[in-house]
Amino acid sequence: MNFFRRCPRLVGPILVAFSIAVTGLGLLALDLYYHHKHSKSAGTNYRGYRGEVIGKKGPNEFRIFVLGGSTAFGYGVGPDESIPAHLEGIVQNRISSEYKTVRVINLAYNNESAICFADTLKYYDYLEPDAVIFYSGYNDNPTMTLYRKPKDCFRNQSWVFRTVGYLPILPLVAKERYYILRYGSVGDGYRKAHARQSKIKRPKPDEQRARIRYKNLINETIYKLVIMGKGAIFTTQPYLSKGSYHFNLQKELAWLFKLQYHDIEHFRYVNLGDIFTQGKLKEYAYDGMHLTKEGNEAIAYELLEPTLWMIKTLRPDWNIIF
User: Cα dihedral sign for 124, 125, 129, 132?
Assistant: First the structure.
């Protein structure tokens, strides 16, 4: 009290600072609550990726990042039913030592595309990855490839995340509450927002330019990894239809990999385009694209051998059961 009597002019600023601090702590507590609430459904942890927050890397730990869009993220299924979660479990079962650990970290997110991958790797470099699996392609249509900017990517839209590495979920919660009030459901809200974006007038995309840019983006990202001695696996997703833009683009990418990386031991291309017949795809993809738990598990088993091979290449002293 004596302090405030001696310095009455400081009372106002101190009260304002105190109010800001209390409000900030309250918002942080609320944000953490919603992170916990949604972490078992379609949310991310407060570090911005799916699953539990990963701590400091252990001396006998091998870490694998998975990059991609909603199919790699596991849209429509729980975190434990996604491709990365299935892959971690089956790979760990093939490591013949309880003192060695493999972690597969799900850095994918809905609508992410090739333009986002370099920044994602930069943000999470502190997790010390040994290898990266790319499960990507559906989102890289000509319009997305030519007109999307890095600032449009999920994590880049958060100033807080870019600054301190904490990804607030309250803005997303608020937006989806607004969609419910305005349109009746979250799904309808996103469809309306997508429709508005589709109405933006842009020149018709040049598919040849788009294919070149996409291949350059992927090639640059993979090249940086392999020259640093990190493993990389690029996976072509199941073909939704033969002769489509995605189908033809992935064929060109496969040829590029054959020319550029044929003698790189810690890179492998895995083509899962034909993993499912059209009948099986209808069974495993509940909406024609996003896979069920069983579909994700099937993908993980196809990635098992290439992943084990990559671990053995980078950790030749590890005993691995092939």
Answer: positive
pTM for the model stands at 0.89
Q: Angle CA(154)–CA(187)–CA(296) in degrees, nearest 5?
A: 65
Residues 7, 13, 16, 17, CA torsion sign: negative
CA proximity to 322, closest of 312, 74, 291, 314: 312
Measured distance CA(200)–CA(194) in Å, rounded:
10
CATH class of the 61-314 domain in this structure? alpha beta
- Helix, strand or coil, per DSSP, at residue 64: strand
In tens, the pLDDT along 263-316 reads 999 999 999 999 998 888 889 998 889 999 999 999 999 999 999 999 999 999
Q: How far apart are CA 218 and CA 211, in angstroms?
A: 11
Each residue's pLDDT tens digit, 86-140: 999 999 999 977 789 999 999 999 899 999 999 999 999 999 999 999 998 999 9
